[in-house]
């Protein structure tokens, strides 16, 4: 049984130290996922907190063997995308195109679109690994420790994830 799943099961039983350990093992990946979408440290920290609140309320729904790390980063990604779109709507209504924000929003849109496409194309675990490496700058060994996966699995998933994304983007460009 996966270490993160065991910790989540302990959290469901009311074990506070298990939650602390689960947080310690996963908060960097959750933060990086949110930061990858929002490109704002403070907002990513807020989304990280919201992610753990949402996860705490929903942990009883996890089935045995669930990928808890992938589940947490999926929650973070969804919350971050929602926050991004909410802020984008606010920015669009508060400022005109002459304010100089339009190019910044377009650049942010491209990043957000690439991250969203990666989330659609890759499975949750591979997405997490790629985001931690590319956006977070973590090394394979660090990702292995944070996710609880063997370093060989992290290396393989990272390589396959990048290949999958490259193939997808090349296919999209041709269309």
UniProtKB/TrEMBL annotation:
Key words of the record: Sigma factor, Transcription, Transcription regulation
Signal sequence extent: none
GO BP term, pick one: DNA-templated transcription initiation
Keyword Transcription regulation: yes
GO molecular function, one term: sigma factor activity
Positions of the RNA polymerase sigma-70 region domain: 23-89
Domain of life per record: Bacteria
Family: Belongs to the sigma-70 factor family. ECF subfamily.
Protein name: Sigma-70 family RNA polymerase sigma factor
Phylogenetic lineage: Bacteria, Bacillati, Bacillota, Clostridia, Eubacteriales
């Amino acid at each position: 049984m996966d270490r993160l799943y065991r910790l989540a099961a302990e959290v469901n039983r009311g074990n506070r130290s298990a939650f602390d350990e689960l947080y310690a093992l996963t908060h960097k990946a959750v933060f990086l996922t949110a930061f990858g979408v929002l490109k704002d440290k403070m907002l990513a920290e807020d989304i990280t907190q919201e992610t753990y609140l949402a996860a705490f309320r929903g942990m009883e729904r996890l089935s045995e063997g669930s990928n808890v790390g992938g589940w947490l980063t999926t929650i973070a990604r969804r919350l971050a995308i929602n926050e991004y779109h909410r802020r984008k709507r606010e920015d669009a209504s508060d400022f005109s195109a002459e304010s100089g924000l339009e190019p910044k929003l377009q650049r942010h849109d491209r990043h957000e679109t690439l991250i969203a496409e990666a989330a659609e194309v890759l499975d949750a675990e591979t997405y997490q690994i790629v985001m931690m490496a590319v956006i977070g700058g973590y090394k394979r060994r660090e990702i292995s420790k944070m996710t609880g996966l063997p370093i060989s699995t992290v290396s393989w998933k990272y390589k396959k994830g990048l290949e999958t994304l490259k193939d997808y983007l090349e296919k999209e460009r041709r269309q």
